[in-house]
Amino acid sequence: MSSLSRETKLTQPVLNLTDRQFKADPFSIYAQLRRDNPVAKAKLGSMPTWIVTRYDDVVEILKNDRVFVKNYKNAQSLEQQRKRPWMPESLRALESNMLDQDNPDHLRLRSLVHKAFTPQRMEEMRPRIQAIAESLLISTQQRRRGDLIADFALPLPLTVIVELLGIPTEDRQKFHRWAKYVLNSPTMLNIMLAIPAIMAQMKYLKQLFAKRRSNPQDDLLTALVQAEADGDRFSEAELVAMVFLLMLAGHETTVNLISSGTLALLQHPEQLTLLRRSPELIKSAVEELVRFTAPVETATERYAAEDVMIADTKIAKGEMVLVALASANRDQRQFTNPDQLDITREKNRHVGFGLGIHYCLGAPLARMEAQIGLQLLTNLRPNLRLAVPAEQLRWRSTAVVRGLAALPVEW
User: Fold this and answer.
1) Each residue of 332-376: pLDDT tens digit?
2) Which one of 74, 161, 216, 322 is CB 3.0 to 4.6 Å from 250, fit for a cystine?
3) Can you give the pTM of this predicted structure?
4) How far apart are CA 71 and CA 51, in angstroms?
């Protein structure tokens, strides 16, 4: 079935953002939308939304946090709120996460987490990230075949965020299982399936917070529990929501960046050869792979706080808006030869990590992990190649992010 379907009451196509066929190649459809329908109707699970595809419009929305707000309560009428997908009361704490808040609440939460999530703490992780990546590659060297995601792209950032937070290593696979439920398409069935996993994670985190209060450690969990600014601290609900967000965003983006980035390099062997010959290009290579592969396909949802016109389309107050980062990063108005992978690209003002007050807090960590991981992979796997035809690869039916289910490779 096509990712673009037609509804009887609508005259324009409706984009299914979690369709696997669409996930495999969203870029051709986004190009069509940028040309013909830059503000389009879409669905995220059962929720109708607007999808905005042109670079300039995406940048405007990301920066305009007065008109395009994150907390739906600051935009929607009570009638609109009643139409939102059902959420059990026990999970309401997750709405306290920083991504779903507007200023001044967002600024307060971000200031608190900055007390713990410092650039110095991130940089101190560099030797450990290098050691983890080397260990993963060395441990699988003799097998000659494997799944790059299960063997490398997933355990690298997951181990890093687990260690950074201070979560016992033996529990890290629990968090990955929980994350998979959360990232599924937000249909009613998937929401129901996710509830037990989310409740289990919330209970686990509350127990960890209690342990860190009574027995502080040199880890991010302790720093978050102790974080204070102007006499203010995280509430219990805010702590749960913050760590939930850090766990999810702290590894999911990097998994997709390393795996999709590797696939892109294998499909563009001249770029892979160039990177091997010129390892100093690794920073620009990672920026280009963020732009080209779209590990985060759309920014998280926003809501129009008033009636607004975007590209001659009226978005009514309270309606949900998604900006397609994947589309903006292929916009020919902003990028020369946007569908060409060029690891030497200099003018690369991509929006892969967002913009504005909600710019990705973990971007420096994701960049560092991808630079280290891809550099080692290209050096230690000189004969790396796909183990199956590219058209047989399966893409996950996920919201917001874009990633492969598996990446079978040989070396």
Assistant:
1) 999 999 999 999 999 899 999 999 999 998 899 999 999 999 999
2) 161
3) 0.89
4) 18
Task: Report d(CA 140, CA 16) in Å as an integer.
Answer: 38
| Cα–Cα distance, 297 to 323 (Å, whole number) | 9
User: Which residues is 47 bridged to in the sheet?
Assistant: 44
Encoded tokens for 166: 């201070």
Residue 317 neighbours by CB under 8 Å, 6+ apart: 75, 77, 304, 305, 306, 307
> Is 97 exposed, middle or buried, given 0-12, 13-18 or 19+ CB atoms closer than 10 A?
buried
Name all domains of the chain by residue range, CATH numbers in brackets: 4-410 (1.10.630.10)
Residue-wise DSSP of 271-328:
HHHHHHH-GGGHHHHHHHHHHHH-SB-BPPPEEESS-EEETTEEE-TT-EEEEBHHHH
**Crossing angle between the packed helical segments 236-267 and 363-380, to the nearest 10 degrees:** 30
d(CA 307, CA 89): 31
